[in-house]
Amino acid sequence: MRHVRYHAHGGPEVLAVEESPVPEPGPGEVLVRPEVIGTNYVDVQLRREADRASIWFRELPGTLTGDVVGTVERTGSDVDPALAGTRVAAVATDAWADRVVTDADWLVPVPDDLDAASASVLPLAGAVALGCLRVGRIAAGETVLVTAGAGTIGHLAVQLARLRGAGTVIATAGSDAKRKLLADLGADTVIDHTAPDWDEQVRAAAPEGVHLALDAIGGDTLHRALDLLAPFGRAVVYGASAGDLTSVPVTSVFALRSVIGFAVLAYRLADPEQARADLDELTGLLRSGRLRAVTGARVPLDEPVRAHRLLEDRAVVGRLVLEP
Q: Domain 125-266 class?
């Protein structure tokens, strides 16, 4: 089978399509034949990081993560064999391949009438977007800021904030196409986060402050977002695409503000019942059309270098998916 890996850290050109044997699912695992593979920006950071001291460093050879939608072909020894033949979505740490092994515990059933690319947001992107709003305790009428709002997670968070009663939704994005998408998805105010004064533009749109900020950029963007929070405002941090896992100034939290870190694995461990209910809710919203998962690019599995160039250049509006 085809299998994408890299044997050196560096630019997109280190990615290679290789031939590998079809893996066997072990205990607690299933083997999935993908229809699509949803890509993740974090793999850009992992692929290019050669410094062993960095949190982004991974040993070689490197594999690529993804959100796989497809059919279960085989099950591990202690997994219900009735799962074979079912359509599912799942997160995988070695996902860029013709066959993918993944844990059976958090498989998401995918209805036949749900587009595979849309379903690819269920196991991770949608779960993160909805989970962040939950732990951020969004309340009706509040003002919500979503940085990197046109990304795979951000564009879902913008819509889910509205669906959960936000009074005002402010989103940031770095291109005209991305800002147009956010306006189409219902953001009240859309701001160019490459502008030096983007935070002042947010402040003008929300003079009383932001009640909830969702940030996946980190660094200076997170610092500015904290300063935009109203008293008792919350910032939920779910990524650091800028590459800077910055510390949070104590003076920021002294102003009656709080910072919460979100990771989907921790959320599932802390409240598995709610995490599973979230997946059901997301599936229903996608099927009804109330939540729109935007696919900005489709790239063949045979073209991993092109896929990573698009990710690295932040050229995709919404999600980039691979098609085997």
A: alpha beta
